[in-house]
Amino acid sequence: MADWLDLGQDCLCYPTRVHFMMFDRTIRHCRQCGAPVARRLPDDGDTKLRAICTACHTVHYENPLNVVGTVPHWGEKVLLCKRNIEPRKGKWTLPAGFMELGETTSEGAARETTEEAGAQFIMEDLFTVMSVARVGQVHLYYRARLTSDVFDPGHETMEARLFTEEEIPWDELAFRTVKETLEHYFADRRAGHFSTHAFDIA
Ligand SMILES: [Zn+2]
């Protein structure tokens, strides 16, 4: 699981060129002045090596990215989108993507659901929070109650379709965080009670 190619399993980067940038997010040049950076300890007591500009001495911090999405549900069914873009083109996913600056996690999840599925829905509670430390990401999924079963997917999606638990293409899911979220969703649904699940993806 730990090799390079498997990053795609948990990484929701798209399009492809962004994906490859994400494979190596290492900062090499200063965002302030463009000079090369060096890896060293800042002199403020920080204990981690940081990318520090060799010219203007700006310290650059590299932090995880948030991926936000929804579990859109309609009766006993859940909406999945067939990806029309790499990575994992042709595989099924819950609507999700990178959070943008200036939006909340819930707003980002709703935006992705509108963009990828063209769905009508009401946002509900936070459902899963998954740390994917290996790729420097945190994935958050909200439940969302569909108010229509008519979808108008955008260019990132080949097909948007409702699935019962039995119909879910478990072997054709794009990402492990999607599989984990769906498993928790149907387990909670059977139990008749939804809660928030926070866990780590190794
Ligand atoms: Zn600089």
Write the SSE topology:
Blueprint (H helix, E strand, L loop, with lengths): L6 H4 L5 H8 L13 E4 L9 E4 L5 E2 L4 E10 L2 E7 L8 E2 L2 E3 L6 H13 L3 E12 L4 E10 L10 E7 L12 H16 L5 E4 L2
Parallel strand pairs: 4-9, 8-11
Antiparallel strand pairs: 1-2, 2-3, 4-5, 4-7, 5-6, 5-10, 8-9
In helices, the fraction of residues equals 10-25%
Question: C-alpha Rg, in Å?
Answer: 19 Å
Question: Can you tell me the overall shape?
Answer: elongated
> Would you report the number of β strands?
11
**End-to-end CA span:** 9 Å
Query: How does the helix and strand content classify structurally?
Result: alpha+beta
Oligomer: single chain
Task: Give unreliable regions as ranges.
Answer: 1-10, 12-23
Largest sheet: 8 strands, mixed
Overall pLDDT level: 89
Relative strand content: 25-35%
Q: H/E order of the elements?
A: HHEEEEEEEHEEEHE
Number of helices: 4
Report on this structure.
- This protein is of the alpha+beta class and 202 residues long.
- It is built from four helices and eleven strands.
- The strands form two sheets. Strands 4, 5, 6, 7, 8, 9, 10 and 11 form an eight-stranded mixed sheet that branches.
- The longest helix is centred in the last third of the chain and has 16 residues, at 176-191.
- The chain is elongated.
- The N and C termini lie close together (9 Å).
- It binds zinc ion.
- Zinc ion binds at residues 30, 32-33, 35, 53, 55-56, 58.
